[in-house]
Amino acid sequence: MQGNFFSIKQIDSNTYHRVNEYVKNRIQYFADEGKHCFVKVEEYNNPRSLSANALYWYGWMTWLNYLIKKA
After folding, report:
1. What is the rounded distance in angstroms from the CA atom of residue 2 to the CA atom of residue 9?
2. What's residue 42's pLDDT?
3. Would residue 34 count as lying in a domain?
4. What string of DSSP letters covers 8-53?
5. What is the C-alpha to C-alpha distance for residues 33 and 63, in angstroms, rounded to an integer?
6. For position 28, what pLDDT does the model report?
7. 23 domain-assigned
8. Which residues contact 44 (CB under 8 A, 6 or more apart)?
9. Single pTM value for the model
10. Could you read off the pLDDT tens digit of each residue along the chain, which spans 71 residues?
């Protein structure tokens, strides 16, 4: 899938207008090129589990920090 993605947790006026303007400009760009586009809005699901995240930060990053300090 190509394109840009926005992760929005809380909507405020500034965020709404920035995203709205971006989408409007991209749609206009595709229309000017004679191309079709689609817009999809869906709930965000984190692809990494809590245990995988913990392993990364407390396992691998701790080990990497140890190796860097030892070098």
Report:
1. 22
2. 86
3. yes
4. -SS--HHHHHHHHHHHHHHHHHHHHTT------------SS-HHHH
5. 51
6. 95
7. yes
8. 7
9. 0.53
10. 456 777 788 888 888 898 899 999 999 999 999 999 988 888 888 788 888 888 888 888 898 988 999 87
Token pair recorded at residue 26:
């991209």
In angstroms, rounded to a whole number, what is the distance separating the alpha carbons of residues 50 and 47?
10
Q: Give the span between the Cα atoms of 30 and 42, in whole angstroms.
A: 22
Record the tokens describing residue 63, joined without a space. Answer: 């080990």
C-alpha span between 54 and 15 (Å, rounded) = 31
Query: Could you tell me if residue 6 is inside a domain?
Result: no
Q: How many helices (H) and strands (E) does the chain have?
A: 3, 0
Query: How many independent structural domains does the chain possess?
Result: 1
Give me the torsion for CA of 5, 11, 13, 19, rounded to 10°: 10
- What local confidence, expressed as pLDDT, does residue 24 receive? 94
Domain interval for residue 57: 13-70
